[in-house]
Amino acid sequence: MTLDRQTKAALGEYARAQRVPTHLLSPTEARRAYAAAPDLAGPPEPVANVWDDLIPGPDSMLPARFYLPEVSLPAPILVYFHGGGWVCG
Predict the structure, then answer these.
(1) Exposure winner among 14, 44, 69, 70, fewest CB in 10 A?
(2) Residue 50 · residue 65 · CB < 8 Å
(3) Going along the chain, which residue ranges are E strands?
(4) Phi then psi for 27, rounded to 5 degrees?
(5) What distance in Å separates the CA atoms of residue 59 and residue 74, rounded to the nearest whole number?
(6) Would you write out the chain's pLDDT as a tens digit for each of its 89 residues?
(7) Gap between the Cα atoms of 7 and 41, Å rounded
(8) Do residues 70 and 16 touch, judged by C-beta distance below 8 A?
């Protein structure tokens, strides 16, 4: 699969930084490395509205945050599922 141009550039920046892989760092070291990492995301997208709500989960209601962009509706949707270790970032 071909990588998106911006994703490829971001991965290149991280490779050039030659940092120790996060899984080899202590939580304190990982937080420090995360804070020192270059900001590759660019400026945030304009947002018309943000709100927190609950959505149905398999066993209970789950917290969710919604961002409504400054675009005409209907608009595409993007869903982020965080799968990290909840240690840094």
Answers:
(1) 44
(2) yes
(3) 47-56, 61-69
(4) -55, -40
(5) 31
(6) 788 888 888 788 877 877 788 889 888 888 888 887 767 667 877 889 999 999 999 999 999 999 888 888 788 888 877 766 666 66
(7) 10
(8) no
